[in-house]
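Comment on the following before class.
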Amino acid sequence: MVGILTGDIKNSTDHKTAKWLPLLKQALDQYGHEPLQWEIYRGDSFQLQTIPEQALEAAVYLKACIKQIRQMDVRIAIGLGEKTYEAQKITESNGPAFVYSGKCFENLKKQNLAIKTANAQFDDHINLLLELALLTMDNWTPAISKTVQKAIENPKMNQKELASILNKSQGNISEELNKAGFDEVQKMIHFYRTQLAQL
C-alpha cells in the first residue's frame, strides 16, 4: 500500500514563481526523490508518493512550508491504496491509490485537505478530524508556519533547541506552537497512524 498526495498551490498566480517554487521542491524532497516519488506539473500542481504512515504528516509539512508566504496555501488530497503500475515518473504510475487521490482532489471544495481510501468509515473519521484541524491550520501565519516546519523536521528537539535554530526566544516558540495547535496536530497524526491497521 502507498500514500499518494495530489495537490496544487492556492493563489500561485498572485506571487512570483521564484518565491514559492523552491519552498515546494524542498518540502517534497523531504519525502522522496524526483521524478520517481514526486513531480511538479501544470505549473503549480504536484504529486507525491509516500508510505501510508507518512502521508498525513507530509501534507501538514507541505502546508507549513507554503504558508510561509502570506496569502498562499495548498490543497491536498491523500489517496491510500495499492500501486499496480510503476513508471519512471510518479505522474505516469497507476493503481487504486492514484485513483482515490485524484477523485478526492476533484471533490475538494471548501476543505483543502482530505483523504480517500477503500474504507468509507476510516475516511469519515479522518476527514472529520481534518476539518476540525483546518480551523486552526488554515490560519497559520508565516512565522507560525516556519516554526511548525522546523518542529516537524526536528521531532527530537525541545523548544529551547528549536529557539536556537530559529533565532527566537523559547517563549516565542512555545507561543507559536501553541497558536498552531501543534500538540493537537501531532495527536491527530498519531491517531491516523493507529487507524491504518483497518485498511
Notes: The first strand starts at residue 2 and ends at 10. Residues 161 and 170 are 8 Å apart (CA to CA). Helices lie at 17-29, 52-66, 96-106, 120-137, 142-153, 159-166, 170-180, 182-195.
